[in-house]
Specification:
Elements (H helix, E strand, L loop, with lengths): L5 H27 L9 H4 L11 H12 L3 H9 L4 H28 L6 H9 L1 H32 L4 H20 L4 H21 L13 H18 L6 H26 L19 H8 L7 H9 L11 H25 L4 H7 L8 H16 L3 H37 L6 H16 L16 H23 L4 H28 L2 H30 L6 H4 L12
Helix pairs in contact: 1-5, 1-14, 3-11, 3-14, 3-17, 4-14, 5-13, 5-14, 5-19, 6-7, 6-19, 7-10, 7-17, 7-18, 7-19, 7-21, 8-9, 8-11, 9-11, 9-17, 10-17, 10-18, 11-14, 11-16, 11-17, 12-20, 13-19, 14-16, 16-17, 17-18, 19-20, 19-21, 20-21
């Protein structure tokens, strides 16, 4: 029997995700969340030019999409295809349509309806102070994993793919200019976008022509250690600057460029029509491969559903939403963008090899998949489809991966700064923006360099990311469910996915617990225990709160509660 063609997989996957946006997200927006264009969003109510900034929905989509779509939707699918491409494909497509988009849109709506408060703060209102404190513990640990691990991933790519160095750092200059052009000079958005994208691709060509390789020792550090320090310095600066200066325009222009990158990858699939050499179901997995259930559902987190998205939706995106109705495009379609990236990663890692034997030679252990396999496989497809030299193809995809990871890292540092400030308030003292940022960066650097100067410590607690991320997603959905029950809205589209994710993530956490004990990984064991206890406790508190919400008198519909001060005139831009 001939192996299936990847083009069929791409067409079915893209069609499912677009149908999710045009059909299911419309149902969620109208019947479940009941988005109201007249509601005055926090970006207008608390506009400060720093964190609360009313933003064009296309620019905000770029920020949201690139913030949530880091290296994880590449790494997860690149690892998960070891079980076969079919289960990975099903989880990514169905997860994007029914879980990820609903989760991201729901977290954004919940925050907008509560003065732009983060999902961690909202947990205090809806499940109590004790639940909030435990919720913040989970969020803090998740953000620590993200910023530390992504710094390691980015630095490794900059060392392994020196052609990506110039476009990676040159993109910052482009972003600064884009921000000034849009907000200060008020130039036409389309013209600025076209100029920015041209500049980014010129930088990619320049980087491929002049790769930057650091010496073995620079300022007493290894190349990877130097890049890690540089990345954290950048992320700290980006965390304290007004969002419109760097973070927002960088994410927007990167989002456009990255979508074009996905277009190049999918266009190459259409032209080259590579065969899926990987098996649909792999019955010959390496000996160290865990059971597909429940591990598939935490190995692929970002790209199907991700708790980190809820922190972005309620942490930064909700504070920039100009219209509540924009949340459908920003939140749900942002998740679709990440789903397309995850689907592209599956195709690159399943069809980017000549033969099954070549594929099996790479996937000889459970941990062998990753960004490198995506760059290798995707580069071969782009080369065959568009005739772009493999070195340039690899540079394009490596730059795409770096920019995805970098935009997630800098947003992660900003979000972690918010969490540190919230924890400080609970402890009875107020932390300023700079001091909270310094605490955030110092803690992440301490973890990153805890195992040596190469920064390998940044990956120390990464094995817990998948379970922690999915547990957080389930907890976020539980808060949204309580809000819907209180308002008398349909809640099953949120509650059922929350229960499924909680069962899968909780089971995976227990499975990992046994593995950490057998391997003597005592730090991971201890953190896993803390996360399990915190998640179970918060979920119990949530279930109790749901029961109380069913008994309470339903809140009036939001439109009935709006005062004139809370309404946003429809003719205002």
């Amino acid at each position: 029997m001939d192996a299936p063609n990847s083009l069929v997989l791409a067409i079915i996957g893209v069609a499912m995700m677009l149908a999710g946006y045009f059909l299911y997200s419309k149902f969620l927006a109208k019947k479940v969340y009941k988005l109201n264009a007249e509601f005055k969003t926090p970006s207008h109510e608390f506009s400060d030019g720093v964190d609360f900034v009313p933003t064009n929905k296309y620019i905000l989509w770029g920020h949201h999409f690139t913030s949530v779509a880091g290296a994880a939707p590449i790494v997860g699918p690149a690892v998960a295809v070891i079980w076969g491409w079919f289960p990975a494909f099903l989880w990514v497509t169905l997860g994007t349509v029914f879980l990820a988009g609903m989760h991201d849109l729901g977290a954004m709506w919940a925050s907008v309806r509560n003065k732009g408060q983060s999902i961690g703060t909202l947990s205090g209102r809806y499940i109590g102070a004790r639940g909030r404190n435990l919720f913040l513990v989970v969020i803090f640990l998740l953000l620590l994993m993200v910023v530390a691990a992504f710094a390691v991933v980015i630095s490794g790519l900059l060392v392994d793919q020196p052609g990506a160095v110039i476009p990676t750092w040159g993109a910052l200059v482009v972003a600064l200019l884009v921000g000034q052009a849009i907000y200060r000079l008020k130039w036409n958005l389309l013209a600025v976008t076209v100029a920015g994208v041209i500049a980014l691709y010129a930088l990619i060509l320049l980087g491929d022509r002049y790769p930057v390789e650091l010496p073995e020792s620079i300022l007493g550090m290894s190349p990877q250690g130097f890049w890690i320090i540089t990345l954290f310095v950048y992320a700290a600066i980006a965390s304290v600057l007004p969002v419109w200066v760097l973070l927002q325009p960088r994410d927007y222009i990167n989002g456009i460029q990255l979508f074009i990158g996905l277009g190049i990858l999918y266009g190459s699939v259409m032209l080259a029509t590579p065969t899926l050499v990987a098996p649909a179901w792999n019955d010959n997995v390496p000996a160290d491969t865990p059971s597909i259930v429940p591990l598939l559902f935490v190995t692929i987190a970002c790209g199907a559903i991700s708790g980190f998205h809820g922190t972005v939706s309620s942490g930064t995106s909700s504070k920039q939403l100009a219209r509540e109705t924009d949340a459908r495009f920003v939140g749900y379609f942002g998740a679709v963008g990440e789903g397309l990236l995850a689907l592209g990663a599956i195709i690159a890692c399943a069809a980017g090899f000549r033969t099954l034997a070549d594929w099996e030679a790479v996937y000889d252990s459970f941990s062998s998949g990753g960004v490198g396999v995506f760059v290798q496989g995707g580069g071969a497809i782009v080369n065959n489809g568009l005739g772009i030299p493999e070195s340039l193809s690899a540079t394009i995809l490596a730059t795409m991966a770096v920019l995805f990871a970098a935009t997630t890292m800098d947003t992660g540092v900003r979000l972690k700064r918010y969490v540190v400030q919230e924890i400080g308030q609970l402890a009875g003292f107020r932390l300023g923006t700079v001091s909270a940022t310094l605490i955030t960066v110092v803690i992440a650097l301490a973890l990153t360099f805890s195992q040596g100067g190469d920064g390998s410590g940044g990956m120390l607690i990464w094995p817990l990311f998948g379970t922690t991320n999915q547990l957080l997603a389930a907890l976020t959905l539980s808060i949204v469910t309580i809000m819907l029950i209180r308002k008398g809205r349909p809640y099953l589209p949120v509650l059922l996915p929350a229960a499924f994710v909680m069962i899968m993530a909780g089971s995976a956490a227990v499975v990992q617990l046994g593995g950490f004990y057998r391997d003597g990984e005592w730090l991971l064991l201890a953190i896993d225990v803390v996360i399990i206890i915190a998640a179970v406790w918060v979920m119990v508190e949530s279930i109790i709160a749901m029961g109380q919400a069913f008994k309470e008198k339903k809140e009036p519909e939001d439109d009935e509660l709006l005062t004139e001060d809370q309404k946003f005139p429809l003719d205002t831009t």
